[in-house]
Every structure is written in C-alpha cells, then in structure tokens.
C-alpha cells in the first residue's frame, strides 16, 4: 500500500513533506542532474534580494565536526536577473516553487514580495529574517520580535500567497517569534536557520572563515533544531517546517513527531544530492511498517 504523503501548509498543497532548503540547491538547476525534482514536495530557492549581492569575501565555507560553517552573505543574482534567467528553468520543473526573500530593510522585503507576487509559478514566500552572515537585515530583524511582526504584517499586505517566516535559533524564546508571525498573518514558520559559530586555525591563529563567524548547519545542529520545533509546537498553533541537520528519513520522521508539518534538507544536499528522493522512499516504508495511511497523522504526536 502507498501511504498518502501529501501535506498542507496554509493554502499550499504539497505532494510530500520533503523540501530542499534555501541556499543549498541554488535555483534548482544545480541539483537537477542528481535527482528528479518532480518527486520533491517543494524547492526553496536561494535567498533573493532586490539588487544583486556579491556576498562575503572567501573563505566562505569550512567543514566542522558533524557539520559546516558558511558565511556566504546572501550572494545572489538580484530580483531582475532571477525573474529573467532563473524562473524559466523553474517553470520546467514539476515541483512546487517557494521563493526565499532576504532584505536589508523592511521596505525591501515588501517590494521584493510585491514584485514576485506576479509570478504565477511562485506558490509561497519564505521570508528570511534570520541570516547570521550579513550586517544589515538578517539577525538585526531576526532578533527583534517587533520587527518580525512588522515585516510579516507588511508582506501579508502585498500577497495572498502562503507566507512562511524563517526563524533564527539565535534567540532566547523562538516561540515568541513564531507567535508574532502568526498574529500578523503568517501561514507557517520554518525553523531553524543556522546557528552562529566560528573555527580557528591553531597555527596562524586566524579564523578559518574570512567573516570570522559563520552559520553552523548539518547533523551537529539537529538536537537544537528539534528542541526549537518542539518549543514552537507546544506554544503556538501554526504549521512548522522543520530544518536542521536532517540526513535521512529517520531524522525527518523525528521532526514530524516533534511538530513539523514538513521539513527541509540543507547540508545533506552537499553530501548526498539524491537524499531527497531516498527520504521519500524511507517515509513510505516507515508508514507501511507503522500502519500509517496518512503522514499527517504523525505531526506533533510526541508523548511527553
Ligand atoms: C551554504 C549554505 C547557504 C545557505 N544560504 C541560505 C540562504 O540564502 N537563505 C536562507 O534562508 N538560508 C540559507 N541557508 C540555511 C539553510 O537553508 C538551512 O536553514 C540550514 O542550513 C540548516 O539546515 P541543514 O542543517 O539541513 O543544512 C544556507 C545554508 C548553507 C549550508
């Protein structure tokens, strides 16, 4: 028997809960030769901003025990180029498209959303208020619960599409941020973005990353991410998209039990670009073994 893997997030209907996380698959084209993207629930594109951004100078990536640090600094082609050269490829892929937006001001978030709202192929927006690697925007907003509420409210004003607010783990009470997003009209939150970290070369005594700090991702952050998802799930009635260190189907199931309606794969795409499709197989086998006919029956079924 094939279990029903479909999930709903706001008005967004996904064939399964597997999404590819922003910044780890470019605009879909970078991973398309390794997997059949039409099998995936949704693709989240690399953060796009109004104008192109070069990002931070190299070294921008370093491997760490059970994870990696990145300080890309939101390098991206900018809105105009995104619409002109990236959207055409994404139109060919039979997968739900979620566009991730980053900005240096509240007005820029609103302007980007307003312009992209016209693109029919984009079914939802993920608003990145949580990048740890840029001076303006990013964590300045992500650490300020009022700013997160205000961004949500204003973005809600310019689109009827599904809005997902991507939350930072670098805060004391993540549920406060989820609540602010819910109150101002977000359909869902995604959690988590990367954790601030660093790494030094013991011989040169210099940071391995030019930006000094970077965002930690990969298996090392999974327990933190799970705790954040659980915290939101226990306090706020809003769909959660779990992110952080998912390497296989077991990790994904754990996120759903802790409250996630869907989940995103990030760092694993660099290790095993076919992971998304393999995880779908794993979900089917698990559901069959556990006599689960609908994967939504798993969501927030923790026993505490
Ligand atoms: C190289 C790299 C680039 C990333 N770029 C973005 C980005 O542009 N926008 C964003 O919202 N998140 C970005 N992220 C964060 C991921 O989407 C994800 O939240 C994070 O890596 C945690 O998931 P993981 O442990 O599965 O990688 C990036 C992560 C990595 C590793």
Properties at a glance:
single chain, TIM Barrel, 8-stranded parallel beta barrel, 14 strands, globular, binds flavin mononucleotide
The run of helices and strands is EEEEEEHEHEHHEHEEEHEHEHH
Shape: globular
CATH fold assignment: TIM Barrel
| Total E-strand runs | 14
Low-pLDDT sequence parts: none
How do you describe this structure in short?
It is built from nine helices and 14 strands. It is an alpha/beta fold.
Task: Tell me what the structure shows.
This protein is α/β, with parallel strands linked by helices and 304 residues long. It has a single domain (7-55, 73-195, 219-298), classed as TIM Barrel. 31% of the residues lie in helices and 20% in strands. It contains nine helices and 14 strands. Strands 3-4-7-8-9-10-13-14 form an eight-stranded parallel beta barrel, surrounded by six helices. It has a four-stranded antiparallel beta sheet with strand order 5-6-12-11, with no helix packed on it. It has a two-stranded antiparallel sheet with strand order 1-2. Helix 2 runs parallel beside helix 4 and helix 4 (145-156) packs parallel to helix 5 (174-183). The chain is globular and about 55 Å long. The two termini are 31 Å apart. 52% of the residues are buried. The mean pLDDT is 95. The structure holds flavin mononucleotide (FMN). Flavin mononucleotide binds next to strand 6.
């Amino acid at each position: 028997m094939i279990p029903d893997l479909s999930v709903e997030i706001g008005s967004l209907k996904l064939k399964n809960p597997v999404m590819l996380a922003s910044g780890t698959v470019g605009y879909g084209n970078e991973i398309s030769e390794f997997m059949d993207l039409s099998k995936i629930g949704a693709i989240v594109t690399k953060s796009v901003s109004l104008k192109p951004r070069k990002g931070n100078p190299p070294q921008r990536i370093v491997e760490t025990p059970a994870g990696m640090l990145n300080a890309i600094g939101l390098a991206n082609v900018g809105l105009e180029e995104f619409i002109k050269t990236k959207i055409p490829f994404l139109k060919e892929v039979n997968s739900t498209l979620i566009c991730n937006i980053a900005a240096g001001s509240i007005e820029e978030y609103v302007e980007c959303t307003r312009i992209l709202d016209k693109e029919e192929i984009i079914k939802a927006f993920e608003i990145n208020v949580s990048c740890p690697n840029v001076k303006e925007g990013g964590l300045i907003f992500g650490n300020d619960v009022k700013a997160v509420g205000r961004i949500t409210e204003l973005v809600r004003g310019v689109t009827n599409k599904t809005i997902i607010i991507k939350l930072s783990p670098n805060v004391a009470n993540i549920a406060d941020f989820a609540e602010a997003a819910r109150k101002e009209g977000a359909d869902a939150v995604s959690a988590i973005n990367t954790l601030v970290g660093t790494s030094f070369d013991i011989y040169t005594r210099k940071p391995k990353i030019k930006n000094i700090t970077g965002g930690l991702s990969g298996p090392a952050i999974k327990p933190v991410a799970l705790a954040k998802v659980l915290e939101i799930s226990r306090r706020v009635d809003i769909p959660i998209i779990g992110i952080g260190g998912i390497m296989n189907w077991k990790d994904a199931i754990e996120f759903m039990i802790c409250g996630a309606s869907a989940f995103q794969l990030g760092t694993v795409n660099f290790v095993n670009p076919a992971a998304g499709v393999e995880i779908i197989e794993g979900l089917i086998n698990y559901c069959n073994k556990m006599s689960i006919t609908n994967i939504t029956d798993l969501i927030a079924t923790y026993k505490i």
